[in-house]
């Protein structure tokens, strides 16, 4: 990466209102059949265009072809029954109706490879592709077959590795695994969660990232955050082991959060995608606010390892809000880039 402080987003971006109900998670599609296939591709083009207009350096598909960052991947696997749904508590926090694992899980065919090839054809910029992490996958399911969270996570890690290798071959530069569950199940993360992630990236030559956040800006998450007290030290539990792992990049929530920024010292040496945009509010950050967050992070992350980013996905936000936030991210990163250039001249 040649640009200093290359910007990116955590993943999802709002969908056009002709494709899916806006500002809604698990929003149902408004099209069907071939019209839906075409509509998803058009939305991907629009999302890419908006990222490029905003000056985002590492672009993505904005997750325009997925209904949800976890369930859409799982829908493509065999061994999972989507008719037979159970209500579970996701991340010990909120109830959701989820599919059931009824037999051995496997990937019969690629899930996102055609979408990734399509994105690759549309741009020369580096592209990042998000996949759900193994632990977050098992937390979004009811298991009626394996009887062990760890066992099921290892199976998903193998499947994710197959998908990741094909994404790499399709020209993806950074493969990111979304693991919000890493902020909740600390013992499991340290016992097998990080090991599963390393299994998922085995043999990859492209860069790899793990995204760990406090969730989308939905009520269940913002209510949970209110219970976490004045200092959010969740990252402290998993950072030491992540620092020792093979993962290249760690993507984190920083702006407006109560995460003590000095915790970044625990992952010194890793590249860090620093969340400088709050996805839980409609108010637009000023470039100066973005720059402030990045300047704070620079005390613990070397400049060549700092990637300005959003706290989480922006799917539930209005399009104009998300777009303004991307502009703020670029402008704030540019301010700090200029400061660094002056220091070095
Ligand atoms: Zn997130």
The percent range for strand residues is: 15-25%
Strand count: 9
**CATH class call:** Alpha Beta
Mean pLDDT: 95
The string of secondary-structure elements, in order, is HHEEHEHEHEHEHHEEHEH
In helices, the fraction of residues equals 25-40%
The stretches of 5 or more residues where confidence is low (pLDDT under 50) are: none
Bound molecules: zinc ion
- The radius of gyration is 19 Å
* Mass-distribution shape: globular
**Which fold name corresponds to the CATH topology?**
TIM Barrel
Q: What structural class do you assign from the helix and strand content?
A: alpha/beta
Subunit arrangement of the protein: single chain
CATH architecture: Alpha-Beta Barrel
Q: How far is the N terminus from the C terminus?
A: 21 Å
Total of domains? 1
Strand order of the largest sheet: 3-5-6-7-8-9
- The count of helical stretches stands at 10
> Major β-sheet, in short?
6 strands, parallel
Domain Cobalamin-independent methionine synthase MetE C-terminal/archaeal: 5-331
Keywords: Metal-binding, Methyltransferase, Transferase, Zinc
Cofactor: Zn(2+)
Pfam family, one: Meth_synt_2
